[in-house]
Design brief:
The structure holds 2 protein chains of 2 kinds.
Chain A (H helix, E strand, L loop, with lengths): L5 H8 L14 E3 L6 H10 L4 H15 L23 E3 L13 H9 L4 H7 L3 E6 L2 E5 L2 H6 L3 E4 H7 L1 H7 L10 H9 L2 E7 L9 E6 L9 E7 L4 E9 L6 E4 L2 E6 L4 E9 L10 E12 L4 E8 L4 E4 L2 E4 L5 E10 L4 E10 L5 E10 L4 E10 L7 E10 L5 E10 L5 E10 L2 H9 L4 H12 L1 H4 L4 H14 L6
Helix pairs in contact in A: 1-13, 2-3, 3-9, 7-8, 10-11, 11-13
Chain B lengths: L1 E10 L2 E11 L4 E5 L6 H9 L5 E9 L2 E2 L5 H6 L2 E4 L6 E5 H15 L7 H14 L4 H5 L1 E2 L5 H15 L3 E5 L7 H14 L5 E5 L3 H6 L4 E6 L2 E6 L2 H9 L2 H8 L1
Parallel strand pairs in B: 3-10, 3-11, 6-9, 9-10
Antiparallel strand pairs in B: 1-2, 1-4, 4-5, 7-8, 11-12
Helix pairs in contact in B: 6-7
Classes of the chains: A alpha/beta, B alpha/beta.
The complex binds adenosine-5'-triphosphate (ATP) and magnesium ion.
Amino acid sequence: MANYTEDELAEELKNQEYKFGFVSDIDTDTIPIGLNEDIVRLISSKKEEPEWLLDYRLNALELWSTMNEPSWAHVKYKKPDFQAIAYYSAPKQTKKYESWDDVDPEMKATMTKLGISMEEQQRLTGVAVDFVMDSVSVATSFKEKLGELGIIFCSFSEAVQNHPELVKKYMGTVIPTQDNYYAALNAAVFTDGSFCYIPKGVRCPMELSTYFRINAGGTGQFERTLVIADEGSYVSYLEGCTAPQRDENQLHAAVVELIALENAEIKYSTVQNWYPGDKNGLGGIFNFVTKRGICEKNAKISWTQVETGSAVTWKYPSCILKGDNSVGEFYSVAVTNNYQQADTGTKMIHLGKNTTSTIISKGISAGKSQNSYRGLVQIHKNAHNARNFSQCDSLLMSSECGAHTFPYIECKNSSAKIEHEATTSKIGEDQLFYCKQRGISEEKAIGLIVNGYCKEVLNQLPMEFAVEAQKLLTISLEGSVG
Amino acid sequence: MITIKNLHASIEGKPILKGLNLTVNAGEVHAIMGPNGAGKSTLASILAGREEYEITAGEIDFDGEDLLDLSVEERAREGLFLAFQYPVEIPGVSNVNFLRTAINEIREHKGEKAMSAKEFMALVRDKSALVELDSKLASRSVNEGFSGGEKKRNEIFQMAMLNPKLAILDETDSGLDIDALRIVANGVNQLKTDQNATIIITHYQRLLDYIIPDFVHVLYDGRIVKTAGKELALELEEKGYDWIKENKVN
Ligand SMILES: Nc1ncnc2c1ncn2[C@@H]1O[C@H](COP(=O)(O)OP(=O)(O)OP(=O)(O)O)[C@@H](O)[C@H]1O
Ligand SMILES: [Mg+2]
């Protein structure tokens, strides 16, 4: 990313509004609104699912109906009407895509607009992509090449059909249905998502990437991702999200489960750019996501997220450090502007001996937004020599925004070492003046300063994503100093 | 190059500059000396365009343009450079990225093409050699964790990179060791042409041993109260400012 200059950035900023706000004219198969047993059965039958999965869903629906929407997060929003959402919307497809050539041209155009023309991806970057639009996985690239290594990378639905034993064994083991309100909802109505399995000892030779896209209006998106890294394997996984610009609030309630078996490593990176709503706080995505990974002995899970989108974000990618010597990392940049609200952070659950976790969180608040870091470091009784280092920095761009830090520590083992650092700063007038005195415009100066501030996190991202993230940060903060 | 006429400026209602006059022509080096709190940095800040100051009277002409009409970045792009008394740290932003952004903004302003990476790196090599700046510093974050002297040297490195028409050095010599002082002065001298000009704000005649000024001014109580050749600096070193203060009262 060192080669990417502010100038190149500026070039691409010419088109500075939310550029993913378009709607594609694609025929969709959308089921009636509402949520009840019949709807769940309908979803399951549309997906030609096995009996056990239908039971799983029905059980989840029952649990969900007894639960309450959580209210502890530092966010305010009008509760969604769960009966007014269509839970299944899929691009109409006459047949399964066998190859890229079969993909609907309008769909291809959408992907190109998102910057993920697969032809190009396939030729240039060697990133395998799975594209999920409105709940259904559309196309997965590089399948054959990965197949030779025994790597399974496909849509969740395909995995249910082709690898039911893996799905059945691991699904819901890290995030049980009753974990929380949105996770239960997801378990009942999830429509698709991504699945990935890396066999023992295999180092996945390319980044695996999924783009999630909400296209149809009046729908919600409920996808599930399951990544299993078998013993001694390694995978780097990327997730991107965008949605059209709409006046309504659309709900996104995803579940992501990561399983890192002994000596395995999973790197999971997200650039979240769901539509944030307009300058007055109208519209935007409600992003209520549960992400958690479990580490067996000597395993490592690293979450990196750059969150610039959504009207409301509620998200805590977490690690259960079950195995001895396992490592959990969380690197996060969360930007809020205008009326956006984010309550995000992580949980590091130390169960095994010599487990270590690192938390680096950078919150940037502008406009009238509210940005909260919420983190839990939990050291269990048997977690001898556990270590945690947390650093939570907040940068304020205006005087009307809010930054909040809620760090929780629960320690039941006296050999633990826990360090916590927190800073809050206002974007420096002196820094801005210094940049301007060198001829740099205010917008570019903000871009430079903010990207510099987030560097530790951005450095964790793979190259293509880092560039994308830098652009997003700058776009999200256009004209926000005040 | 720059003509300041009857400049009055105040901050938070408190007058700091009280009718300052100064003319600097291309090819000249001017030194401004004066006691603490006289308004030297204030003058530099106003020239650079800091907004906190209120200009209550006077005018400033910069190469035919009304300087006070230009924004901070326009002034910089037109060739006005300020070496800060207290350079600012920008964590996570490398010096080279910072400078490349600046250079290309200035070029764009002039309707020139962006500088290629190759050309830019050659320039970095060239100019860091000129001020003997450790190449490691060029790639580190802007001023972050730099020693006081390194920061000052970095200001001159930036000046060399940006090649301004008018450079204002605000106490660039303070905090420099003897060797660094010589190196920085040497850098400034080498950058001098008959097309550009330099204003040096300093407390010590020492720097003026290396950079020979055409004029030395004494700024006192918001005004230039005395102007002479380089010998004035020696006289000030010897006698201090009291005699000037007394003169002024008379
Ligand atoms: N932001 C401010 N608020 C109030 N007073 C200020 C402010 N900035 C400068 N001043 C005052 O203006 C006067 C001139 O300050 P200035 O920094 O220009 O002095 P100087 O000549 O550069 O002094 P030194 O030799 O110590 O650097 C001082 O009395 C100072 O206290
Ligand atoms: Mg000063």
